[in-house]
Amino acid sequence: GQGEDSSPDARQAHAHGCARGSAPTMEAPRTVEDVFDNFSNRRAGLIKALTGAVDDFYEQCDPDKENLCLYGNPDGTWEVQLPAEEVPPELPEPALGINFARDGMQRKDWLALVAVHSDAWLMAVAFYYGAKFDGKERERLFKSINSLPTVYETLSGKAAVKVKATSKKAVAAVVPEGQPPAKKARVEDAHPAPSAAGLRKPSPGFILRADGSLVALNNAHIELFWPDDQLWYRAEVVSLNSRARSAKVLYATGDVETLSIDEIASEGHLNVCT
Q1: Burial of 243 (0-12, 13-18, 19+ CB in 10 A)
Q2: Is a pLDDT exceeding 80 seen at residue 10?
Q3: What pLDDT is recorded for position 257?
Q4: Other C-beta atoms within 10 Å of 238: how many?
Q5: Which of 14-28, 39-53, 63-77, 226-240 has the lowest mean pLDDT?
């Protein structure tokens, strides 16, 4: 799983998007677009921890350990680590000691609590980076952030309910340019998941055939074709049910959707990236 190195120094190495234990590889985000990308990637990592990798995350939050925090990293990964030792820290810190509450609450309620604190932390980091923005830039940043469901909404399913309750015409009006409108759910109770900007052509890989082997889908990076706007959208397979031939996928924005593999494959709409 992710987050095996729980040293504060290792966590700090990730603060501005650099590899663990190495020299920084990128500067702190400076433009509205850069801050939003940083926010989106950190959010995606947090959603992975609370959905596709939830058992691993739960196990790492041992109440017998010291104060632990859940970090979403700028590269889309997540980590359970000790808080930074610097005072004040380089960046705002997530909620401290989430592991202490784990066994004193229902699992679902504990995960929801972590999700809410994670949303608050994401906003704190984004507006820390945007401290020098003017009013218009801050408003633009907030509108971009507000276009995505929160971690809590994604975890609780409230994001899906909101989309389902909205008419197709209204959805088309609110989806930002370059993102697909809501599409028909592929399996019962699945929900539409708007993704990051699409591609006109699939990346190098192969189109999965219906009724074929699913081995290549394990933790795979894939692209899904949306006929409504004739674009391919990137996603990552976070869990695979070979018996039901379904997969839970995480889009670049952090939205999660459960897919019926054969239905999509029969249309030639699933590209497995190589």
Answers
A1: exposed
A2: no
A3: 83
A4: 17
A5: 14-28
In this prediction, residue 165 has a pLDDT band, given cuts at 50, 70 and 90, of very low
**Which residues lie across from 70 on neighbouring strands?**
80
- Describe the crossing of helices 32-50 and 135-146 by its angle, rounded to 10 degrees: 30
